[in-house]
């Protein structure tokens, strides 16, 4: 069973629908025991960092998340909250990835919204058969710096982490559930780790 974390953030149903299309069963939950027992955990979201972290802390899901040993995937806001700090609401985050989330400078249209490809891809099971020219769908005004945990980067205004991995934790800044066949391939890669 795949656990999709419910934490006061949007876009969770579309992630569940994408998982169902790939043939996997899932539940949407904020129950710590269900999350701990899940085969894999997905931490998706569209929302605001400080209110999302408040929800997680009130339910002690912040402690649950960082203690997980099974594969965990953060999507969009999920990736940002897996970093150490977010400029959005000056928020202390989970600290899984040793980088901060910053607001894009207003040098181009912000938020970064639409299709974009990758600047660089490193080796990881989650990016198997991914090409730098593959496009995925982004909607975000904040980004994580490129760091040692960056598996794939993207360039919009400046380079940022598009896909990250540290041990059993994976994260994608874009929305794989809205990224057509490329997103489906990436979700499938994660679900088969």
Structure description:
This protein has 193 residues and is an alpha/beta fold. Helices cover 26% and strands 31% of the residues. It has six helices and 14 strands. The chain has an eight-stranded mixed beta sheet. A four-stranded mixed beta sheet has the order 6-5-7-11. A hairpin with a 2-residue loop joins β13 and β14. The longest helix is centred in the last third of the chain and has 12 residues. It starts with a strand and ends with a helix. The mean pLDDT is 96.
Short summary:
This protein is α/β, with parallel strands linked by helices. The chain has six helices and 14 strands.
Keywords:
193 residues, 14 strands, alpha/beta
Order of helices and strands: EHEHEHHEHEEEEEEEEEEH
Distance between the termini: 14 Å
Low-confidence stretches: none
**Overall spatial form:** globular
- Tally of DSSP helical segments: 6
Strand content: 25-35%
Structural class: alpha/beta
Write down the oligomeric state. Answer: single chain
Q: Over the alpha carbons, how many angstroms does the gyration radius reach?
A: 15 Å
User: Main sheet: which strands, in order across?
Assistant: 2-1-3-4-14-13-12-9
Write the layout of secondary structure elements.
Blueprint: E1 2-5, H1 12-21, E2 26-29, H2 32-37, E3 40-43, H3 49-58, H4 61-67, E4 72-75, H5 77-81, E5 85-86, E6 91-92, E7 100-103, E8 112-116, E9 120-121, E10 136-140, E11 142-144, E12 150-156, E13 158-166, E14 169-172, H6 180-191
């Amino acid at each position: 069973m795949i656990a999709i974390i419910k934490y006061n953030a949007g876009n969770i149903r579309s992630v569940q629908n994408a998982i169902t299309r790939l043939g996997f069963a899932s539940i949407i939950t904020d129950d710590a025991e269900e999350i701990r027992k899940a085969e894999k955990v997905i931490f998706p979201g569209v929302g605001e960092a400080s209110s999302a972290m408040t929800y997680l802390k009130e339910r002690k899901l912040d402690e649950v998340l960082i203690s997980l040993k099974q594969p965990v995937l953060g999507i969009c806001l999920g990736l940002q909250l897996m970093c150490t700090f977010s400029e959005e609401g000056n928020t202390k985050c989970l600290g899984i990835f040793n980088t901060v989330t910053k607001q894009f400078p207003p040098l181009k249209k912000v938020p970064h919204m639409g299709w974009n490809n990758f600047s660089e891809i490193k080796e990881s099971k989650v990016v198997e058969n991914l090409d730098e020219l593959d496009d995925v769908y982004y909607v975000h005004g904040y980004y994580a710096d490129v760091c040692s945990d960056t598996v794939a980067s993207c360039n919009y205004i400046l380079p940022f982490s598009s896909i990250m991995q540290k041990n059993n934790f994976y994260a994608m800044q874009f929305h794989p559930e809205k990224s057509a066949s490329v997103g489906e391939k990436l979700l499938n890669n994660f679900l088969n780790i």
